[in-house]
Amino acid sequence: MFDTENITPMSDEEFVSIRNFVYDHCGMYFEKDRKYLLEKRLSRRLVINQIPTFTDYLLFLKYDQHADEEVAIAVDLLTINETYFFRENYQLQAFIKEIIPELVKKKKDKTIRIWSAGCSTGEEPYTLAMLISNATVKLGIEDWNIEILGSDISHRVLSVAREGVYSKSSFRETDESYLSFFDKVSSGYRVKDELRKNISFIHLNLLDKKRIGLLKTMDVILCRNVIIYFDVEAKKKVVQSFHETLDKGGYLLLGHSESLMNVSTLFGLKHLKNDMVYQKPGGENTVEDTAPEERERITDFSSLFTSEVAETNNSENEPTTNKEDEQSTEEPSSLSWSKIWEKK
Question: For labelling alongside 158, which of 142, 167, 190, 333 has CA 20 to 30 A away?
């Protein structure tokens, strides 16, 4: 355990400089009262890298030959990743009972694409897959192509998501019937391969507009309890990217404490029986389309994203989740990359 005696003092000036660096990188913004969090979680990195002060650490983050690797580790340490299966279930009921049936009625290509943005350790994508699996026969989508993408900025949590092994705390809101989608193993419950087959996990910074521009058009985006950590300007950038990635009439689901008020007017607020969600205008039965024309997509990406297939975390992190932070060398699920990225 990393005790308080080993915490390196961080001055107010150092806090502002490091906070601004993190913000510019990924949009996370820390108020002044969060200085101790940065001080506590990053102090270990100073010890490991034999760096005396946070001023020197910032120079390390900017200019060292291993800076990119260290930035990824720092972001991992500062990211809050607490989650569990079937979180905010009332919204999930709107997803499976109202949104998915509507998409089934209007989609002619028999393909539905769903993006869990900021998926943390993967409980949300797997939850969506379980809901859809149970409703497959009722919806008549046995021959449909359902693609679920989970993304996060933390390599560490993506390693957990790909491994797909969870402790009891992840199931605190889960009905026992859903345990049929898991195998009991010594360290908890492992997601069965059948559930994994249409899920992929990728490393993605939500402020990286170029990389997001390579995603296929999505029908539903869930970004729940993520942008709450962003300031208004970062939120605007992320929501703009969501708008450009969604198909006309597509849905955006945010956390219960999040809204687009004073952030964006690109989406309409749609009242469903189980919840209120945001919808991109332009499709059938949607709000009036007041949004600008969508931008043209990047078309040359053949040389990108070849090194992410077997991402693992090599950092010496202090866990910030309620799950065992085990390393995984497992490949991403069997959903091929060509189903996620495409030329527009």
Answer: 142
| pLDDT, tens digit, 9 for 90 and up, residues 45-103 | 999 999 999 999 999 999 999 999 899 889 888 877 778 999 999 999 999 999 999 99
Does residue 177 register a pLDDT over 90? yes
Residues 6+ apart with CB under 8 A from 343: 297, 299, 301
Q: What is the CA radius of gyration of the chain?
A: 20
Closest CA to 90 of 322, 256, 315, 263: 256
Q: What is the pTM of this model?
A: 0.75
- Write out pLDDT tens, residues 108-134: 999 999 999 999 999 999 999 999 999
Task: Name residues whose C-beta falls within 8 Å of residue 250's C-beta, 6 or more positions apart in sequence.
Answer: 217, 218, 219, 220, 221, 279, 280, 283
Of how many residues is the chain composed? 344
**What's the rounded Cα separation, in Å, for the pair 294 and 291?**
8
Tokens coding 218: 């999505």
Of the candidates 262, 208, 205, the one whose C-alpha atom is nearest the C-alpha of residue 236 is 262
Spatial separation of the C-alpha atoms in residues 181 and 159, rounded to whole Å:
20
In the chain, CATH 3.40.50.150 sits at 89-339
Q: What is the pLDDT of residues 278-319, one digit of tens each?
A: 999 987 766 554 343 333 333 333 333 333 433 433 333 333
User: Which DSSP symbol is given to 34?
Assistant: G
Q: Where in the chain is the domain with CATH 1.10.155?
A: 4-78
Strand order across the 218-223 sheet: 199-203, 145-152, 111-117, 218-223, 246-254, 276-279, 268-271
Annotation: CATH topology of 4-78:
Chemotaxis Receptor Methyltransferase Cher; domain 1 (1.10.155)
328-344: per-residue pLDDT in tens?
333 344 344 345 555 34
* Rounded Cα distance, 37 and 28, in Å: 13
Q: How is 283-336 classified by DSSP, letter by letter?
A: STT-----PPPPPPPP---TTSS-S-TT----S-PPP-SSS------PPPPSS-
Q: Does domain 89-339 have CATH number 3.40.50.150?
A: yes
